[in-house]
Description:
Mean pLDDT is 85; it is low at 1-23 and 389-398. This protein is mostly helical. The longest helix is centred in the C-terminal third of the chain and has 46 residues, at 352-397. α3 packs across α6 (169-190), α8 runs parallel beside α11 and α14 (324-341) packs antiparallel against α15. The protein has one domain (10-397). The protein starts with 9 loop residues before the first helix and ends with a helix. It contains 15 helices and no strands.
Amino acid sequence: MPNPLVEHDPLAMSVTKLERPQRGHIVELDSLRGVAALFVVFDHFMRGWVDSSPPHFVRYIPYLPFLSNGGAAVMMFFVLSGFVLSLPMMAGKSQSYPIYAARRVCRIYLPYLAALLIALVFCWRFHGLDSYAPVFSNFWKTAPTLHLVVQHLLFLGRYDVYAYNAPTWSLVHEMRISLIFPLLCLVAARLRPWTALLVALSFPVAGRLVEKYTAPWYETGTSSIFWSETLGFCGIFLIGSLLARYREPLVDWVRSVPGIVRWILPVVAIALYQYPALLHIPRPLRNFAIGLGAAYFLILALVPDGWLSRMLRLAPLRFLGRVSYSLYLTHAPILIVMSLAIWGKMPYLYLLLPFLAVAFAFAALFYRIVEQPSIELGKVISRRWRRPAVEKLNAVVA
């Protein structure tokens, strides 16, 4: 039976023509996610370097586009997730919600649990120690506690999400939004594009209102995992979903714009992505503006034979894309432990190359023994749950 969401929508149906390599991945988007993960890694290293009394020029490096903006890279993750999760529905490939949810849990949550375990072991061993940079004093302050560990496991309450493995704050939102994402995808699939974009814009506004009127009842915890923040990030996922629906028209438009506009677009995208505060964009809308900037680079990555597409297909970036989630999950504990190891022995900059080597090697190992088996488990569950439904349908037809 045709999917009613796309039955009369030629723009949505056009995504079925999407060329994909083996295993259903879009290589350029995998690599783009890997580059974003690398920017997060550099951002965390830079924060330690800036706090370690470096040369004066180092303090200006965070103002360079992309290189040291981990928060914007996370918004890129959210846009990419919205795009990729929308493709099956936009192409009319339906699946039951239990299968969808099980695969998302296996894809996101199981590797998260493994990374959390690693961070807990390191925290138990090294808690209470001074690290090389003051920025790390926010982590591993005390030994793990049962109450806080349970909160990390359930993603519930307003808790110190940075206590064990700081980057995992974004996974709280990723998991929450993933579980309700089919509803967001309906908005992108059924509404006109500008109407759906306005709905997306309304999410951060609504999140700010929720935060404003619920703040008096909550005085503890880390604001980055509040439910109001999750509500705001729904709008960024919806941007990705809209890109999936109108992928081909957008790619064609980017390819056909006049020369002067072709130069203006990346400048505007970089400004939105990197400098929303300097543009005086209201604080509740800054992440949304970053998402719009990220959307341009996502579409640019999909332009056939474009410079960005060719670059993202290079073997090193393909490797980076493959291990990007593992790198994101595991780099922070490695950075903290290695910073402890060099305390008072060498300048912080000397840590960069050894840290990158260890982080990449550990990410590759983590991908092989944790992330890849988790993905395969999701596929196995999907096949086993789908088989009884197919057999039942065949019995009815017979």
